[in-house]
Input
Amino acid sequence: MRAIYLEQNPDKSTAASLKDLDDSALPTFDAKGVTVDVEFSTINYKDGLAISGKSPVVRKWPMVPGIDFVGTVQASDDANWRAGDQVILNGWGVGESHWGGLAQKARVNGDWLVRLPETLTAFDAMAIGTAGYTAMLCVLALEQRGVQPGDGEVLVTGASGGVGSFAVSLLSSLGYRVVASTGKAGESAYLQSLGAAEVIDRNTLSAAGKPLQKERWAGVVDSVGSHTLANACAATRYGGTVAACGLAQGMDLPLTVAPFILRGVALIGVDSVMAPAASRVQAWARLAKNLDRGSIANIATRIGLAEAIEAAPKILSGSVRGRLVVDVNA
Output
């Protein structure tokens, strides 16, 4: 099998290469091991960090990166899966502490897999990938807190990225008036094509602001963190909900308790890596039902496995729009 292979140099830097590996190199399991012929994977921000070595994402060496994949079960020791089943994997430490999806084969714990919805193709699934799945978890968090389309505007930060792009498309298709925040002025037409009613400059949110601001947002999907998330909370309307799932601007959160104790704002953390199976199945079912298929063509770009290494720094620099889908057999 061909795979992106990460090794650690003596100076702790990362060496990434495209290698031919024997199937016997795949991880083994005492029980529930499932071998998958991978069709597509993706390059996410975390994959960019792993491949470039810019952050200590990799926990074990050597490593095959790729935090998600879609493919067909080749062999299974798990009674829930049999040869021929089409499956999706997102998260669970794959690509960090366990070999991931940027390879032609993967062997994982059967508990980590979700069945590919019948109405989605394998390419669709990875065009959506962890980014779209995370965006759906954020939308579900808003819905579960009672945020309805008639309640007012919903802000999506980091809107031209993977999570943001899918959040804009999903919320718009569900009838919400979406305001998209981006630092890329040239992406306004793209975001409007996904359903954004208004596009604002991220600079209006990215600097330190007042602890309590004019009420505007009924809900927020934030993948940025830091001052952006703080300002979003400060301008959220009474009883509104903010779903936070990323830290593109930073891990810090310089805010006060004012939005929470004076306006009853809820800040919900959304984790896609270790989310329970029921949440995953619900998210993928809703994606299959609610996502505008036209958005996939706008959001996703296909590349080959050999191009994945060069794509990593582009993801980190923010120069990639939407999603990069990796055809591991190309």
User: Anything to note?
Assistant: The chain has a mean pLDDT of 95. The chain has two domains: 2-116+295-327, 130-269.
